[in-house]
Amino acid sequence: MTGSRTGVAGLDDILAGGFAPGRLYLLEGSPGTGKTTIATQFLLAGVEAGVKGLYITLSETDDELREGAASHGWEIPAELEVFELVPPESLLDEKQQQSLLYSSDLELGETTRRIFEVYERLKPQRVVLDSLSEIRLLAQSSLRYRRQILALKHYFAKQNTTVLMLDDLTSDALDKTVHSVAHGVIRLEELAPNYGAERRRLRVLKYRGRKFRGGFHDFVITSGGVRVFPRLVSAEHRGPVDRATVSSGDPTLDLLCGGGFQRGSSTLILGPAGTGKSLLALTFVAAAVARGEHAAMFIFDEELGLFCARAAGLGIDVQGMIDAGKLTLLQVDAAELSPGEFSDRVRTCVEDHDARTVVVDSLNGYQAAMPEEQALVLHMHELLQYLNRQGVATFLTVAQHGLVGDMKAPVDVTYLADTVVLLRYFEALGRVRRAISVVKKRTGAHEDTIREYMIGSNGITLGEPLTQFQGVLRGVPTLAGENMPLLDTSGA
Fold first, then answer.
1. pLDDT tens sequence across 163-211
2. Which of 19, 79, 260, 291 has the most crowded CB, counting CB atoms within 10 A?
3. What CATH number is given to the structural domain containing 32?
4. Is the distance from CB of 394 to CB of 267 less than 8 angstroms?
5. How many folded domains does the chain comprise?
6. Confidence category of residue 143, pLDDT binned at 50, 70, 90
7. Which residues form a coiled coil (predicted)?
């Protein structure tokens, strides 16, 4: 059975093709989670496909719906009928309300009759009923409510009409009557973090006969409607991968790394603040652009203008790479961006712009977007696996707490990376110096030495292995030989 397109970006992917036609679906969520917007998109998508739509509203007025659509830049076409189901005048009469003959049965029956009347007049193929809360109140009992929903379901099923019912979950009791009746159930949730914008996510609770994508999926409501970001599953992106070794652009750095970096692998750059993690990652980006490839950088911790100016002072023309269309540089606000949306942006760079090198600077900022540490590890695992299977060289930076001595990372993701580069401060001859070493590489041999490096106007310069020192990684080394092969920092 082919699916009916929902009109919501990303939702068809989660539903494995959209809504099966001629079935009844439930879209539930608290007020403000985006139910009306999704329902409107569903009907507008039908109109684009040449299908008539009917929006039956018991809770909002016609003007409110049209104003809401206009806020997204939509205009309700003639093929989409908005039917405002208001109580009959006789039921609003004070004497009638006080009469012993007045019963909710009368209003429930009248409501159902009017729904059938407008349907018979228009014969639409897509119907939205907003919302079930009013029908639940009219029914007054769970038994009558279930019978009413079943009656609506069987009526529309005979007409081969796709029905989307909305429920705002405002009843005191958690009534799941419609769950058992509906062909599919989607729940929308809104989370309010202690700081930052609200986060919205959805989950498909049920879909009969369809292998949908389970779990939570982040979504946003923008001026163009709802956009859903399907949860990234790396196993769905297997394929042939070119795992050739590429140069870092610096022969000495290549020597330290055992010849360079392999495509389809991830590199973690660890070190305290100020050791040059971003600059080191940027050198890999510059090398990729020099090879004629496209690269992408996601900056969490620094303003883009300052980042470009700082890179220019080190001889790297970031703005020139952007202008040439070889670099996608995006600043990420962790307080505003959900993890799902971030993964979607990375996928766009890889699949649409063919980025072969991706830098995330840094995981400290990325962690701020995570509800808890374990979620960060799981997200990074899927994202890195996906990038590796796309043949992308990925570079991640993590700022460790402290400057010298024992240091700790905010989250341990070293086991996820194929290569781990460690940066350190150390003191020698009354100066603060920097050291670099490769402590892990899954994809081949690497140099096990510790080298000094210097950041200057020409970028990063590596020195000879510090063979005459012991304790460099602790920050305060001791001289174990006669010669000290240190870089000349007088001109730095």
1. 999 999 887 666 688 899 999 999 999 988 777 788 899 999 999 999 9
2. 19
3. 3.40.50.300
4. yes
5. 2
6. confident
7. none
